Each structure stands twice: as structure tokens, then as C-alpha cells.
């Protein structure tokens, strides 16, 4: 049995192909049953997200299986093979295991460390389980993928570093105010980046939102979007005393806020800290303001600097994560090889011998009066019984049947043979 | 036995200090659990050593510099663990355990024998007055440690270099809040310590206030913290200024504690 991964992701295929090959809604069920029909495919699970479509399977013969899967994809989605074949990757064996663990741990994601993919992997697994398309091997692999992802998340800080400007703004705000709920926030001006950052702040619990715009109507519109109140541009200075966080992006050619004004504001608010993000280019807020005690002013370049530091950090963490992946792949492969029948037969035999020896010793201690001849006869009997008992499972293990993996796992469980697998 | 307990506590605090300093240089990723565990063990042993000495001397062991330093250190660790329990800021240990260790180290080099207490001082006031004073001063000491953390985090935010301990230090708002809280705890304790001291002085020496250097410096400390609270409430001196003031306040305490005893002649000096 071999593990085979066929798929495509944001790196290999553009969005148009990804869309056409996606298994959305009812297609997911149709797809997974269709794949199960392929003779070489013994177990299968199907992942379909907006960034990737992947088919995880256990197959007898990876070449003919992958040919048939490609053919299935072409038939199912009504696409020419040539149109999508270049975007596909076909991975087998240990590389396939590694791939699945990396995907689950979000090392293969567009934004490395993003947490959604693990949930999607879980869904994939649950769905396949509910449709009974997976078996021992894939079940184990999926469990391994999930536990590895958790390990990566707890042992590295891969998901902790904000790698976009708007996330960096939230991260900074949390180092100034701890809890953003109940904090008041002013959006001064508009613009894509400013609005995105504003959305993140609101998403993190900022409640009192004020929207200032030179065009009052536009301000009203935006205010509606953020559940805030519009403020006329002429009045924004009066509101500053009650504002903890300001995002500024007005497109004005000069500064709209000067140091002297801000000093007055700070006195009014009894020096409670203020966090100002100036996204505008050219800058709209006098950089001297950062020198005021209790004011933290970040412009676009500052935020970019934060993001870059975080990127570096994340890269370092990703390297540590890869090491964890290596370890877990190793463990999984070890488990897989233990599924071979020969070691199981040996272990079964050993187990039987152990039981015999143990019981035989007890017997001898219990009846010390017996002479050697009788003891030999009893030993002969015991050996004959265990041989008869382990004969049928041994024969079954030697047969090359379809469900041998399951059989091996079952026998190990029934006879209490652990092999080298010590976890879970 | 008492010596063994004391030396053991000192050793554990030393280990906790080393671990906590390593944490500073490791930056972000490490957890504070090992340090907390070692410091916790040290605290338990230290408590045992103080109880042992209490039993041996028959009164709260604060009547020699050796005992006083050790008890002061114990109060600081007590407050540290109360804060840790409430706020879970492990990295705080890196700023407090070194101070504790230095206190204990200075205690360890001072003469350790238990001396008979002069009859004038044999009173229940001894326990009450000194416990209040030490606990109050320990709260101020911790506030100074928090103040240093505040200044560091504030520096990261202002300079926009977010490396080092930036990720592990909590928000400046929380640090400011803890600082304020500690001072509001320490201040009434110090006030009560001065009042009980005056009551005790009246019964022991026959006058409320004798302008003893320790009394004077305690009063100075009291005024400094009264000022810290006053300017915070009226002029909004919070954050950086409050942090700096709490550090200055602690320096005064250190002088009241060590300087007065070692340099000036005082009724409170124990030698």
C-alpha cells in the first residue's frame, strides 16, 4: 500500500483553474464516491478550499492510480487533461506524508501560519469518516496531521507574528491598551488600508467609533459600515480628547495635526495614552507628536518595519516547525512499516511463546511432585495448543489480501501486540 | 537547622535569578514556569526558615540587619507571587528575583546570631509595626520593578524596535495599572506602620516622635509616595512619570533601610 497525494494549490495553479477543479457543496460527496470507485484506490479523502484541492489516497499502484485519478478529474469537471495537468502535483510515500503534515501545520499556506487550514483538514477527515471512504492508513495519517499541527502551534510561535500592516496595528494597540474592548477609535479620512485596519480594530472589540471625512456624506456612509458616528472634519479636534486610537489617511498635502494641538489634547485627557497610525503619504500627522509622553505615533514605514521583523521571526519559527514535521514523518513511517506482516507474525509467535513459558513455569511450581516424563508430556501439549491457535491468523497474515493492513492492525489489537508504536 | 534552611532558600533564589536572567536574553519564546517553580520552592523553604527563627527568638525575626533583610526579601517574594497569581506575567520575575537575591545575599553576609531583645522593645507592637512597614516597603519595591518593566516596554514602543522582550512584556496599560495598585497598597501600609511606630514609641520611649533618622527618612518616603499618588490623581501623572517616581521612591526606601542603619546613628539600628 502506498500513500498518494494529488493536488494543486495557490502556488501551482491560478485562481481560474482552482475554481474549476474545486469540489464545492454537493460536488464534494459526488467526488469522494467517484474517487472511491477507482479500482486502485483503497482509501480516499478530499480537501477542497479556495487555495487548494487535494486528494489523499492509499493505493496499490501509484502510477495507474494517479492516471485514473487524473482521468476522473477531467471527466468530473469536464476539463481537458492538458488544461490542468501542469498545475497538478503527484506525491507518494514519505514525501506524501510530509506534504500532508506540512499542509495541516500551515507551512504550505499562502499566509504561513494562518489557522484556518487545520479546521479545513479536520472537516475533510470528518467528512471522509462519515462517508466511510478511509481506512486504517488514512485515518492514522489524518490524526497524525492534526496532532502535528497542534504540536507546531504550541511549540513554535509561527502563528503569533502579525505579517500584515493592519494586523501589526492591532498587535501594537494590544501592547498599549491590553484590551481593546471599550476603547474609542477615530478613522480620520478613508482609503483601503485604513479601512482594513479599522475593520480589524472593530473586530477586536473597539466599540466607540468615530468617522471623520472631508465629505460629510462619505463619512456618514463609512460610519454606517463601522457602526460608528460621523464627525465633521472641522470638529475632529474636539473629539480627540475622548479618542484612544486614531487611524489617519486623509490624502491632505500637509499635516492636519500638530504637536501643540496634541499636547493640549493630552492634557485634557489627563495623559491617558493615545495610539496614532498615520497611513497617509505624504504624512498627515506631525512626526514630532511621537515625542509627546503618552503618544505613540506610527507611520506606514514604521508599520512596515514591524511587519518585516515579524516576517523574519516567522521564517525562523517555520524552520523549527520543519524539524517537528521531520520527526513526525519519521514516526509515521515507522508505524507504517510496522504494518508489514512479517514483524507481526514474529510478534504473534513471541507473544504465544511468552504466555506458554509463563504458564508452564507456574504449572511446574504448583506440582513439584511430577517427574520429568510427565512434565515433558504437558509441555508438548501446551506447544501443540498454541501452535494450533496461532496457525489460522498466521496464514491469514501471509495471504496478500486487500484488507491486510486492517487485518494486521486488528490482530495487533486482539492479541495486545504493540510493536514500536508507543503513542496515542 | 535554621542556617541550612536559610542557605537553601538563598540557593534557590540564586537559581531562580539565573534562570530569570537567562529568560531575558532568550527573548520571546521561553516560558517562565521553571523560574516560577524554583522561586516557589525557595519561598517555601524561606518561610520555613523564618518560622524556625521566630520560634527560636520568640518574636518576629526582624531585630538584626540579617533578619530584617531576609524578612524584607520574603515580603517581596510574597507580593511577587500574589501578583503572578492575579496577572500571570512570568517575565516579571526577571525584574524582581534579582532584587530578592541581592537582599538575601546581603542578609547572608551579616552577623546571624540571635541577640537578646532590649526590654524596651519587648512588645506586641514589634510584630505589628515591623510587619506593616516591611509589607508596605515590599509593595513599593515591587512597584519599582514594574516601573522598570514599564520604561522598557515604553522604550520599545517609542523607538519602534519591537525586538527583545517586547512580545513577553505585557501592555504598558497593565504595567501602569499594577504600579498604581501596588502604590495604593503600599501607601496605607506605610501610613499604618508610621502610626503604630509612634504608638509604640510612646509606650516604649515615652514620646511619639524623636526625629530619629529612620523616622525622618520614613516620613520622606511617605511624602514621596503621597506625592506620587497626588500628582497621578490631580495632574494625570501616569505612565512614564509614575514609573520613574516609583523607582525614585524605592531608592529612598533602600536608603532608609540600609543607609540609615549603616551610616547614621539611629534608635532603629540594630547593631
Distance between the termini of chain A: 23 Å
Number of β-strand runs of chain B? 0
Greatest contact pair? A-B, 24 and 23 residues
H-E order of chain B: HHHHHHHH
Listing every helix as H and every strand as E from the N terminus to the C terminus, the arrangement of chain A reads EHHEEHHEHHHHEHEHEHEHEEHHHH
Task: Please give a structural write-up.
The complex is a heterodimer of chains A (424) and B (271). By secondary structure, chain A is α/β, with parallel strands linked by helices. Chain A has three domains: 159 residues, Glutamyl-tRNA reductase, N-terminal domain (Beta Polymerase, domain 2, 2-Layer Sandwich); 143 residues, Rossmann fold (3-Layer(aba) Sandwich), CATH 3.40.50; 78 residues, no CATH class. The two termini of chain A are 23 Å apart. Chain B has 271 residues and is mainly α. Chain B folds into two domains: 117 residues; 130 residues, no CATH class. Chain B is built from eight helices and no strands. In chain B, helix 2 runs antiparallel to helix 3, helix 3 packs antiparallel against helix 4 and helix 6 runs parallel beside helix 8. At the A-B interface, helix 8 and helix 13 of A face helix 5, helix 6 and helix 8 of B.
Amino acid at each position: 500500500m502506498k500513500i498518494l497525494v494529488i493536488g494543486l494549490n495557490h502556488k501551482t495553479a491560478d485562481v481560474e483553474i482552482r475554481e474549476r477543479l474545486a469540489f464545492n457543496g454537493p460536488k464534494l460527496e459526488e467526488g469522494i464516491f467517484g474517487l472511491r470507485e477507482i479500482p486502485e484506490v483503497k482509501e480516499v479523502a478530499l480537501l477542497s478550499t479556495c487555495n487548494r484541492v487535494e486528494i489523499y489516497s492509499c493505493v496499490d499502484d501509484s502510477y495507474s492510480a494517479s492516471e485514473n485519478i487524473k482521468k476522473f478529474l477531467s471527466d468530473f469537471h469536464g476539463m481537458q487533461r492538458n488544461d490542468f495537468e501542469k498545475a497538478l502535483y503527484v506525491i507518494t510515500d514519505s514525501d506524501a506524508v510530509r506534504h500532508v503534515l506540512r499542509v495541516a501545520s500551515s507551512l504550505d499556506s499562502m499566509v504561513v501560519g494562518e489557522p484556518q487550514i487545520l479546521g479545513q483538514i479536520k472537516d475533510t477527515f470528518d467528512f471522509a469518516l462519515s462517508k466511510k471512504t478511509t481506512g486504517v492508513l488514512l485515518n492514522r495519517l489524518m490524526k497524525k496531521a492534526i496532532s502535528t499541527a497542534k504540536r507546531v502551534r504550541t511549540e513554535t510561535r509561527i502563528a503569533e507574528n502579525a505579517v500584515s500592516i493592519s494586523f501589526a496595528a492591532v498587535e501594537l494597540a494590544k501592547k498599549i491598551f491590553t484590551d481593546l474592548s471599550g476603547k474609542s477609535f477615530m478613522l480620520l479620512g478613508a482609503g483601503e488600508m485604513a479601512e482594513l485596519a479599522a475593520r480589524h480594530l472593530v473586530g477586536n472589540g473597539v466599540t466607540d467609533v468615530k468617522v471623520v471625512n472631508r465629505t460629510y456624506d462619505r463619512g456618514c456612509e463609512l460610519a454606517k459600515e463601522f457602526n460608528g458616528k460621523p464627525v465633521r472634519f472641522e470638529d475632529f479636534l474636539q473629539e480627540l480628547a475622548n479618542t484612544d486610537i486614531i487611524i489617519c489617511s486623509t490624502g491632505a498635502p500637509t499635516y492636519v495635526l500638530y504637536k501643540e494641538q496634541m499636547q493640549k489634547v493630552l492634557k485634557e485627557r489627563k495623559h491617558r495614552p493615545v495610539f496614532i497610525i498615520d497611513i497617509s503619504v505624504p504624512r498627515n500627522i506631525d512626526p514630532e507628536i511621537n515625542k509627546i509622553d503618552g503618544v505613540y505615533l506610527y507611520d506606514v514605514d514604521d508599520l512596515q518595519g514591524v511587519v518585516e521583523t515579524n516576517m523574519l521571526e516567522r521564517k525562523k519559527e517555520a524552520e523549527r516547525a520543519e524539524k517537528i514535521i521531520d520527526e513526525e514523518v519519521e514516526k509515521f513511517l515507522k508505524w507504517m512499516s510496522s504494518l508489514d506482516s512479517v514483524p507481526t507474525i514474529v510478534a504473534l509467535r513471541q507473544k504465544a511463546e511468552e504466555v506458554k513459558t509463563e504458564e508452564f513455569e507456574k504449572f511446574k511450581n504448583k506440582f513439584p511432585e511430577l517427574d520429568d516424563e510427565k512434565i515433558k508430556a504437558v509441555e508438548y501439549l501446551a506447544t501443540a495448543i498454541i501452535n494450533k491457535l496461532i496457525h489460522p491468523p498466521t496464514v491469514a497474515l501471509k495471504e496478500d489480501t486487500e484488507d491486510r493492513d486492517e487485518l494486521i492492525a486488528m490482530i495487533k489489537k486482539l492479541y495486545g501486540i504493540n510493536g514500536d508504536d508507543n503513542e496515542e | 537547622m535554621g542556617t541550612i534552611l536559610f542557605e537553601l532558600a538563598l540557593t534557590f533564589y540564586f537559581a531562580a535569578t539565573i534562570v530569570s536572567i537567562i529568560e531575558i536574553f532568550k527573548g520571546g519564546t521561553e516560558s517562565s514556569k521553571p523560574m516560577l517553580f524554583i522561586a516557589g520552592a525557595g519561598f517555601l523553604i524561606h518561610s520555613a526558615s523564618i518560622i524556625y527563627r521566630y520560634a527560636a527568638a520568640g518574636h518576629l525575626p526582624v531585630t538584626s540587619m540579617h533578619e530584617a533583610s531576609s524578612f524584607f526579601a520574603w515580603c517581596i517574594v510574597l507580593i511577587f507571587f500574589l501578583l503572578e497569581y492575579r496577572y500571570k506575567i512570568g517575565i516579571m520575575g526577571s525584574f524582581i528575583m534579582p532584587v530578592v537575591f541581592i537582599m538575601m545575599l546581603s542578609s547572608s553576609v551579616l552577623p546571624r546570631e540571635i541577640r537578646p531583645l532590649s526590654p524596651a522593645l519587648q512588645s506586641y507592637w514589634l510584630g505589628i509595626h515591623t510587619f506593616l512597614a516591611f509589607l508596605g516597603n515590599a509593595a513599593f519595591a515591587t512597584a519599582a520593578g514594574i516601573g522598570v518593566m514599564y520604561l522598557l516596554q515604553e522604550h520599545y514602543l517609542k523607538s519602534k524596535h519591537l525586538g527583545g522582550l517586547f512580545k513577553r512584556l505585557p501592555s504598558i496599560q497593565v504595567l501602569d495599572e499594577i504600579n498604581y495598585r501596588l502604590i495604593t497598597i503600599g501607601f496605607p501600609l506605610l501610613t499604618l506602620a508610621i502610626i503604630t511606630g509612634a504608638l509604640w514609641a510612646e509606650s516604649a520611649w515615652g514620646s511619639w516622635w524623636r526625629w530619629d533618622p529612620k523616622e525622618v527618612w520614613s516620613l520622606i518616603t511617605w511624602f514621596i509616595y503621597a506625592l506620587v499618588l497626588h500628582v497621578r490623581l490631580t495632574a494625570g501623572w501616569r505612565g512614564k512619570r509614575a514609573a520613574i517616581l516609583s523607582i525614585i521612591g524605592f531608592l529612598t526606601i533602600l536608603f532608609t533601610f540600609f543607609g540609615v542603619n549603616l551610616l547614621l546613628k539611629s534608635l532603629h539600628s540594630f547593631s
